[in-house]
């Protein structure tokens, strides 16, 4: 379902290209490097996040995506390891896989997974693994879809993005990082989303883990 | 060598401590069972609203000419004041796939949910005495309100369609405007079927004064109140509109440019904006914060050691100390009947457990029914 | 660009000395360009072009818009070449006032838009009221020198590969047929400009060359990032297949002998030819792979009773 | 290689008392738990007194640590020290004028902007600017530190540099030595400086090193001979 490879770019410290369903995102990480004066934080690592759409000029929609990714990545980073330094996270959406004026959930979920791979590729300290999954509930309110396709997404009553922090070899869910839901749903549906979303996140985390294993093989090929 | 320097503990006033070390001040308050805004942990701030008599369609006859505000709301919650004003415009729809009026739009069947709903374009301005480009917070707030409004299904596209009236001047030059759906309209008005379609476009300007904590919930509630007072002006086309064909030739290419007369808005007649009442929803925010054992105030040993809960759910975050020291936020937009429109939980540094989520949804429903009663 | 890539003097001396002996760090000859990889995406108008390590992604999109009043018969065409820190930390996000970025977008603008590579009059639907607005977004993914050449190829491949929805006009009625209903229509591309960038190095130190006796500057083609940082002058020549010069940009730097301009154009023309053939070849391959079933169902094959 | 480990997994540490933290291991101040923060291979070494744990991982961005031998580029000179960049865009480090053999107030070192220096990191705590020195503080002599004249630099990944420096019997350098005599200074910050007398040898070494980093050890021999063959007998 999810295809990804790390180390695709040269001038940056960590990079990855991730394709999940019809959405393709490329992420690059540079850091810890010297921050500009106004970005510097006295005790921890400053984060500069840039999201660029596949069509047109970056607008408030991308600004919201940046804010959401920041909310997910900040608690997971080992921020106090790099005081007064800067990490640059750049996302380039190559294929949105959803109508941009109406939805941005599949792009958000792909960006979070890509951020995890790129951060690991760059070797920046993170305290736990995390993975994200996009869910949607179909018009009839019963069927819950994981990583819906564009057609299913359009017909869905509500769309949810779930990001979880995982521990112990991506088996145990440690904490909820982000749950963002839009549309028409009730409490019972939300709990069902959380429940199914957990299993899907664990499955995605295992797929991400395999990608990292390939990266490690490639990193020490000369040994 | 140097004489012993005795260190006197520094003491600060609560507000100063709140600014210097927000999380320390927060933990100190929590250890006493209080919170910096001195409200109970699940108590919301009171909200007062009025429509501010800004909109030109409000009951009192505000002078019509020049006032183009269609709906307004002034919301005061704690120290924060929010003024929302709704303005609008009429836009010709270039219909992608041609439809006759009778048979319903085949192409976007009911399956395609999100594109059936109308949207509103909010612009949030947090007045903090600094003019200049919108800050990141203002942009994310506007986009979040736009997304949430679109998916909440409060406004259907039909409600924004313009039913065009016709202005006819009879023999003695006295003009009268009839609208097809009005009872006393002549058959002429009913038979007037314009080929071109127009829709209303709604803009919302949300100004925030004396910001005192997270803003998304307050802006959303103020917008909902403002929309309930919104009236849309009727629009008509002059009977004698003849599409003037202006022959234009440019570098050997000549064509007749159709100069079309635009639609005019009726300054007198208004019709209320039809909202899907069942989708009306109100927002409330919560925060989860864990008690840090070291930062507790030294407990006087006589009171019995009750096992204080490790983490606390606070409702309606207010004040610098609370906002700066909290990173796990839950924001819920729900109708009174429990049909939620938007739910956002950010994990942050503390653990958000399942029953925290359940409790916040329950509180959000109560808050929503309380707010709905106000309008 | 606020932050710079720093190069040590010993590295610079080594590269210049190697050039003097005809050696380049990636074992290419001076006139040899890096091999160009063109990969088309799933949608029409989505192409990723790589030249060595330099990687650029271009996305073409279109929507209905109102033509400008003073040009009622022409559609709109925008090209956006914004760099982001993804191409390299030396690029700042959002600030495109760096000298290289401005030069790159100016040259692409002149080469593709101003030269009329895209037939904008073909984009007009109803004169004066409705026309197509075509937008080309170039995203720089990895920067190893040669941004101008790669983005020009990317934009042209995108334009040739893009299909816009079919439109029928009956009097005032404009109907836009969705892609499922009617086969989308390609854009009108009149010629295919190809940019070729030459880099000049002055092996001796500066004063001697000003006197002009020894003008044996070294002239390189398709410089990598390190060579770009150390070059003294640059020339970008844009040609198309029918041997026409579309634009020439010699923005300051080392003054060069006028005759070399001519043989630079000849060298550039050879490259333009090979590249245009490669582009057409890739387009044909992609077209075949896209409707490999069409070949079966097409009417030409014999009727099987 | 030992077991692979990812952030969020547990170190296999039974004894809890004094654990030495190497790179990639982090002790969370809140719950005093030792956990891995990078992905790599877990290396736990038990000694009598204590247990040391670190994650063997490869990356490109160098973070100064005390005792590392690095190749720096002088980017600025101030009243009492030079500004040295260890890797592009990172925070520059300082090299004080006094950090040279038999330095004194009067005779200032003769380095210019753009020069390469081989130095040792003497101070590197995270909040402050790191400092490097060009003198072996114990003996007071230059011990190979100081200006690196001419030659060029190959930028490679950090783990590869560590391997070249610490693993004596890593074949690459000895293979190169068979084809050319060269001076080499390996910086742990990912910069390998080397100089041969003839430009073609240096170019051949440059190409071999940058290519061998991405190939398995068995192919190194063929890569090196290929580069030297193409460069040496193709006399212009």
TrEMBL record, chain A:
SUPFAM superfamilies: Ribonuclease PH domain 2-like, Ribosomal protein S5 domain 2-like
Limits of the Exoribonuclease phosphorolytic domain: 2-124, 140-199
InterPro entries: ExoRNase_PH_dom1, ExoRNase_PH_dom2, ExoRNase_PH_dom2_sf, PNPase/RNase_PH_dom_sf, Ribosomal_Su5_D2-typ_SF, RNase_PH
Molecular function per GO: RNA binding
Subcellular location: Nucleus
GO cellular component, one term: nucleolus
A Pfam family of this chain: RNase_PH
Highest taxon of the lineage: Eukaryota
GO BP terms in the entry: exonucleolytic trimming to generate mature 3'-end of 5.8S rRNA from tricistronic rRNA transcript (SSU-rRNA, 5.8S rRNA, LSU-rRNA); nuclear mRNA surveillance; poly(A)-dependent snoRNA 3'-end processing; rRNA catabolic process; TRAMP-dependent tRNA surveillance pathway; U4 snRNA 3'-end processing
Keywords: Exosome, Nucleus, rRNA processing
Entry similarity comment: Belongs to the RNase PH family.
Protein name: LANO_0G11232g1_1
Native organism: Lachancea nothofagi CBS 11611
Lineage of producing organism: Eukaryota, Fungi, Dikarya, Ascomycota, Saccharomycotina
From TrEMBL, chain B:
Alphabetized Pfam families for the sequence: RNase_PH
Coiled coil: none
Any one GO molecular-function label of the UniProt entry: mRNA 3'-UTR AU-rich region binding
Nucleus as UniProt keyword: yes
Keywords assigned: Cytoplasm, Exosome, Nucleus, RNA-binding, rRNA processing
Subcellular localization, as worded in the UniProt entry: Cytoplasm; Nucleus, Nucleolus
Domain of life the protein comes from: Eukaryota
UniProt GO cellular component terms: cytoplasmic exosome (RNase complex); nuclear exosome (RNase complex); nucleolus
GO BP: exonucleolytic trimming to generate mature 3'-end of 5.8S rRNA from tricistronic rRNA transcript (SSU-rRNA, 5.8S rRNA, LSU-rRNA); nuclear mRNA surveillance; nuclear polyadenylation-dependent rRNA catabolic process; rRNA catabolic process; TRAMP-dependent tRNA surveillance pathway; U1 snRNA 3'-end processing; U4 snRNA 3'-end processing; U5 snRNA 3'-end processing
All copies of domain Exoribonuclease phosphorolytic, residue ranges: 43-233
Family: Belongs to the RNase PH family.
Protein name as catalogued: Ribosomal RNA-processing protein 43
Organism expressing this protein natively: Lachancea nothofagi CBS 11611
From TrEMBL, chain C:
GO MF annotation list: mRNA 3'-UTR AU-rich region binding
Gene Ontology biological process terms in this record: exonucleolytic trimming to generate mature 3'-end of 5.8S rRNA from tricistronic rRNA transcript (SSU-rRNA, 5.8S rRNA, LSU-rRNA); nuclear mRNA surveillance; nuclear polyadenylation-dependent rRNA catabolic process; rRNA catabolic process; TRAMP-dependent tRNA surveillance pathway; U1 snRNA 3'-end processing; U4 snRNA 3'-end processing; U5 snRNA 3'-end processing
CDD domains the UniProt entry points to: RNase_PH_RRP45
Exoribonuclease phosphorolytic domain sequence ranges: 32-165, 191-270
Family in the record: Belongs to the RNase PH family.
Alphabetized Gene3D superfamilies for the sequence: GHMP Kinase, N-terminal domain (3.30.230.70)
UniProt-recorded name of the protein: Exosome complex component RRP45
InterPro entries, per database record: ExoRNase_PH_dom1 (IPR001247), ExoRNase_PH_dom2 (IPR015847), ExoRNase_PH_dom2_sf (IPR036345), Exosome_comp_Rrp42_subfam (IPR050590), PNPase/RNase_PH_dom_sf (IPR027408), Ribosomal_Su5_D2-typ_SF (IPR020568), Rrp45 (IPR033100)
Keyword set, alphabetical order: Cytoplasm, Exosome, Nucleus, RNA-binding, rRNA processing
Entry's localization field: Cytoplasm; Nucleus, Nucleolus
Pfam families: RNase_PH (PF01138), RNase_PH_C (PF03725)
One GO CC annotation: nucleolus
UniProt KW rRNA processing keyword: yes
Keyword Transmembrane: no
TrEMBL record, chain D:
Xref: SUPFAM superfamilies: Eukaryotic type KH-domain (KH-domain type I), Nucleic acid-binding proteins
Gene3D superfamilies: 2.40.50.100, K Homology domain, type 1 (3.30.1370.10), Nucleic acid-binding proteins (2.40.50.140)
Domain of life: Eukaryota
Pfam families registered for this protein in UniProt: KH_6, Rrp40_N, RRP40_S1
Record key words, sorted: Cytoplasm, Exosome, Nucleus, RNA-binding, rRNA processing
Domain K Homology residue range list: 151-198
Name of this protein: Ribosomal RNA-processing protein 40
Exosome complex exonuclease Rrp40 N-terminal domain: residues covered: 21-61
GO biological process, one term: nuclear polyadenylation-dependent rRNA catabolic process
Record has Lipid metabolism as a keyword: no
Chief place of localization: cytoplasm
Ribonucleoprotein is among the record's keywords: no
PANTHER family: EXOSOME COMPLEX COMPONENT RRP40, PNAS-3 RELATED
InterPro entries in the record: Exosome_RNA_bind1/RRP40/RRP4 (IPR026699), KH_dom_type_1 (IPR004088), KH_dom_type_1_sf (IPR036612), NA-bd_OB-fold (IPR012340), RRP40_KH-I (IPR049469), Rrp40_N_euk (IPR041054), Rrp40_S1 (IPR037319)
Family, as annotated: Belongs to the RRP40 family.
């Amino acid at each position: 379902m999810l295809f990804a490879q790390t180390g695709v770019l040269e001038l940056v410290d960590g990079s990855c290209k991730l394709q999940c369903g019809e959405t393709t995102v490329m992420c690059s990480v540079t850091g810890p490097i010297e921050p500009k004066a106004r970005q510097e934080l006295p005790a921890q690592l400053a984060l500069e996040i840039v999201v660029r759409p596949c069509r047109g000029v970056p607008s408030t929609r991308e600004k919201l995506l940046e804010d959401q990714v920041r909310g997910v990545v900040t608690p997971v980073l080992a921020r106090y390891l790099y005081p007064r330094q800067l990490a640059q996270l750049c996302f380039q959406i190559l294929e949105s896989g959803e109508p941009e004026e109406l939805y941005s959930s599949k792009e958000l979920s792909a960006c979070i997974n890509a951020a995890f791979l790129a951060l690991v590729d760059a070797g920046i300290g993170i305290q736990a693994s995390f993975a994200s999954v996009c869910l949607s509930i179909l018009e009839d309110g019963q069927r819950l879809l994981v990583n819906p396709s564009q057609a299913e997404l359009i017909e869905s009553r509500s769309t949810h993005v779930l990001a979880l922090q995982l521990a112990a070899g991506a088996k145990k869910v440690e904490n909820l990082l982000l749950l963002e839901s839009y549309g028409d749903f009730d409490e019972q549906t939300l709990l069902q989303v959380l429940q199914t979303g957990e299993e899907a996140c664990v499955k995605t985390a295992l797929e991400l883990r395999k990608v990292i294993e390939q990266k490690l093989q490639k990193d020490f090929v000369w040994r | 060598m140097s004489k012993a320097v005795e260190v006197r503990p520094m003491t600060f006033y609560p507000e100063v401590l709140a600014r210097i070390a927000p999380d320390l001040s927060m933990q100190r308050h929590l250890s006493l069972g209080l919170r910096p805004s001195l409200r109970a942990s699940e108590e919301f701030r009171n909200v007062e609203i009025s429509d501010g008599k800004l909109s030109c369609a409000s009951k009192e006859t505000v002078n019509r000419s020049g006032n183009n505000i269609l709906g307004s709301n002034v919301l005061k919650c704690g120290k924060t004041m929010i003024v929302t004003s709704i303005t609008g415009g009429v836009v010709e729809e270039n219909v992608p796939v041609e439809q006759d009026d009778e048979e319903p739009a085949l192409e976007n069947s009911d399956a395609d949910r999100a594109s059936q709903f109308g949207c509103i374009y909010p612009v949030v301005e947090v007045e903090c005495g600094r003019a200049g480009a919108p800050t990141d917070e203002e942009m994310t707030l506007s986009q979040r309100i736009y997304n949430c409004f679109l998916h909440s299904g409060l406004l259907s596209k039909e409600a924004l369609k313009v039913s065009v009236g016709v202005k006819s001047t009879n023999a003695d030059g006295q003009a009268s405007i009839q609208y097809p759906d009005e009872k006393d309209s002549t058959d002429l008005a009913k038979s007037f079927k314009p080929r071109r379609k127009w829709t209303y476009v709604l803009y919302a300007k949300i100004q925030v004064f004396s910001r005192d904590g997270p803003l998304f919930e307050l802006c959303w509630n103020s917008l909902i109140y403002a929309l309930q007072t919104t009236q849309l002006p009727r629009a008509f086309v002059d009977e004698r509109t003849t599409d003037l064909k202006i022959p234009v030739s440019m570098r050997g290419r000549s064509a007749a440019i159709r100069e079309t007369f635009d639609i005019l808005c009726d300054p007198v007649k208004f019709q209320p904006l039809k909202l899907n009442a069942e989708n009306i929803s109100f927002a409330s925010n919560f925060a989860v914060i864990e008690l840090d054992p070291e930062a507790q105030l030294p407990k006087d040993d006589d009171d019995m050691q009750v096992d204080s809960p490790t983490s606390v759910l606070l409702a309606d975050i207010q004040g610098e100390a609370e906002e700066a020291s909290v990173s796990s936020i839950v924001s819920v937009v729900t109708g009174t009947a429990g049909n939620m429109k938007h739910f956002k939980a950010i994990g942050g540094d503390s653990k958000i457990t399942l029953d925290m989520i359940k409790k916040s949804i329950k509180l959000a429903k109560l808050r929503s029914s309380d707010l709905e009663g106000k309008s | 660009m606020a932050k710079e890539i720093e190069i040590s003097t010993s590295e610079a001396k080594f590269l210049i000395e190697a050039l003097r002996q005809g050696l380049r760090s990636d074992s290419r000859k001076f006139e040899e360009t890096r091999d160009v990889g063109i990969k088309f995406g799933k949608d029409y108008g989505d192409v990723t072009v790589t030249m060595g390590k330099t990687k650029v992604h271009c996305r073409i999109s279109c929507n209905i818009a109102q033509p400008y009043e003073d040009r009622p018969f022409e559609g709109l065409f925008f090209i956006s070449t914004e760099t982001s820190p993804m191409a390299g930390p030396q690029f700042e996000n959002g600030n495109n006032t760096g000298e290289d970025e401005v030069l790159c977008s100016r040259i692409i603008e002149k080469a593709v838009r101003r030269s009329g590579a895209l037939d904008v009059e073909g984009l007009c639907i109803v004169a004066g009221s409705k026309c197509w607005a075509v937008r080309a977004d170039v995203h720089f993914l990895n920067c190893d020198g040669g941004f101008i050449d790669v983005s020009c190829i990317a934009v042209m491949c995108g334009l040739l590969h893009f299909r816009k929805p079919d439109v029928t006009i009956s009097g005032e009625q404009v109907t836009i047929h969705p892609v499922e209903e009617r086969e989308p229509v390609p854009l009108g591309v009149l010629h295919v400009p190809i940019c070729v960038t030459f880099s000049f190095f002055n092996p001796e130190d500066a004063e001697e060359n000003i006197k002009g006796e020894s003008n044996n500057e070294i002239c390189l083609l398709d410089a990598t990032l390190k060579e770009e940082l150390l070059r003294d002058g640059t020339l970008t020549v844009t040609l198309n297949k029918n041997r026409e010069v579309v634009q020439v940009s010699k923005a300051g730097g080392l003054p060069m002998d006028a005759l070399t301009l001519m043989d630079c154009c000849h060298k550039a023309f050879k490259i333009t030819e090979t590249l245009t053939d490669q582009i057409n070849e890739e387009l044909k391959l992609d077209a075949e792979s896209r409707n490999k079933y069409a070949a079966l169902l097409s009417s030409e094959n014999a009727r099987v009773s | 290689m030992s077991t692979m480990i990812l952030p969020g997994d547990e170190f296999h540490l039974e004894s809890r008392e004094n654990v030495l933290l190497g790179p990639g291991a982090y002790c969370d101040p809140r719950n005093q738990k030792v956990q891995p923060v990078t992905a790599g291979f877990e290396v736990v070494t038990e000694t009598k007194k204590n247990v040391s744990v670190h994650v063997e991982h490869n990356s490109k961005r160098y973070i100064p640590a005390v005792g590392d031998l690095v190749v720096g580029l002088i980017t600025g000179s101030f009243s009492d020290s030079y500004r040295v960049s260890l890797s592009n865009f990172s925070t520059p480090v300082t090299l004080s004028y006094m950090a040279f053999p038999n330095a004194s107030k009067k005779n200032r070192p003769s380095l210019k902007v753009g020069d390469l220096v081989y130095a040792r990191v003497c101070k590197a705590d995270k909040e402050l600017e790191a400092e490097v020195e060009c003198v072996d503080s114990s003996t007071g002599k230059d011990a190979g530190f100081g200006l690196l004249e001419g030659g060029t630099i190959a930028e490679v990944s950090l783990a590869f540099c560590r391997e070249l420096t610490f693993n004596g019997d890593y074949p690459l350098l000895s293979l190169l030595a068979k084809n050319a005599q060269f001076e080499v200074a390996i910086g742990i910050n990912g910069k390998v400086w080397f100089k041969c007398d003839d430009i073609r040898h240096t170019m051949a070494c440059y190409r071999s090193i940058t290519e061998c980093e991405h190939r398995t050890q068995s192919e190194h021999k063929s890569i090196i001979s290929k580069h030297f063959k193409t460069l040496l007998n193709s006399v212009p």
